[in-house]
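Re: iron/sulfur cluster structure - here you go.
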Amino acid sequence: MNILLVNPPNAGRSIPEEEYGITSIKQLFRGEPFSLEAVAGPLAGHDVRIADLKCEQEQYLWDEYAGFAPDVVGFTAVTCEANTVLRLAAGLKRRGRTAVVVGGTHATLDPAFFNRPEVDYVVVGLGKRSFSELVDRLGRDLPGDGIPGVSRTSPGKPLSLLPRRYCREDLMDEHPPRYDLVARWRDRYVIERLGLRMGFVATAEGCTHRCSFCAIPGMTGGRYLTHSPESVIRAIGLLGDIPFIRMTDANSFGDPAASEELCDAIAAAGIKKRFFGDIRADTIAANPGLLKKWKQAGLHAVVVGFEELEPGRLGAYDKRYAGGVAEQALSVLHETGLMIVGDFIVAPDYGEEEFRALEEFIGRSGIQVPVLSILTPVPGTPLYETMREQITVRDLDYYTFLNAVVPTRMPEKEFYGAFAELLKRLHDKLQRTA
Ligand code: B12
Ligand code: SF4
């Protein structure tokens, strides 16, 4: 079969820009469509292509559709891309009878959102194995019903889904990601600030925790699964001379023993790359030796979700950090000499005092790259259930994590002004120290 996998274009709208002319908050991102490369891995025997609409104009999709005549088109989508994917899927349905499949973050969080005539199947959670099973059935002219983790849409009726119990077999480590399918855009996948090429590799899936705002636990039904060191090393090898490796896992070091095994395997293979990974502050505080070992193996920067300074708010996010853990983690990271990317969540009820406290903390923390987002209760998360009554903005185009979708405590214009100014001061400082 001919299978076309589509990475939607950069989507999302900005309230600060549309309402107040504040243009500095909206961000554009580019990275390889790794989820699609991963699901393409096991589809041997089929002709598979990827259309990366973050690198191409939309016309590229229609040209590919006309020239390649795919039997199946698969879309990936985070929440702010969900409307865009429905629009593109409707365009496909107008053109022909291809089967349209949607998978990824938003399909997993809120599969019912895609229970629409323009979509045929929704793939929930890890998609490698369930999608290959679906393709296998469609290729044999069988209906795609009854596959755990795959829903056949039923517009107007409730969506039914056979749950999948995700396990290591779902990782399909024997099938590497199809990096070759995005070769034409490889030079565009760069770390903008450094102009260096970056490749994506998965070392783990899911998470050990269940923070209330986060999409990741649902991806594996709450399990934490690690890829085999051999498959990680093979993937790094397939990326050739690309110098930076972004571990795509939301929690790369969640199983310290497995992480150490991978680190040893990378060192033993003589791999000389610079790695980025996401790591919890408490994992850092509890495993300073592991961090030092990884540093020697090439770990360059870590993304740490500090999220919030005030213990009450942090507790409400179910982050499960014990008091003082942020400071302990920072001290380990400075001692180890790792670059720190620190994630912080600005809640819509922040006032001037909270903005000031956040800036002071970041200023004295030595965090080199602070990243701010605005608390967003995404449908399908526990946070959504607790905040749903307060939500005033329901259009998913605004779910970019840079809009307040519930009322702000400060007048809205002042809130976005304070957010934008803080971002600018942090950014200016970054430029001076770069
Ligand atoms: C790399 C990355 C990006 C890259 C994406 C590269 C690309 N696709 O072009 C870039 C930098 C562009 C990006 C941008 C954004 N991102 Co981002 N990103 C990630 C990150 C770190 C890794 C994604 C990844 O590759 N994972 C590994 C792959 C293998 O897993 P996966 O994507 O889940 O795919 C599996 C399944 O979902 C499924 N699947 C996925 N797609 C499909 C499609 C089909 C057809 C099928 C069958 C199955 C399937 O199968 C895959 C294999 O098992 C994740 C965090 C994470 N660890 O997932 C955040 C994450 C996805 N991003 C997130 C967000 C919020 C964003 C942004 C909105 C901005 C922001 N503030 O960060 C923007 C949106 C861009 C835009 N405006 O359009 C959130 C999404 C939350 C949500 N509900 O929307 C995440 C989960 C981070 C987080 N912890 O909150 N991101
Ligand atoms: S925020 Fe991080 S630690 Fe919390 S559930 Fe998500 S991935 Fe896990």
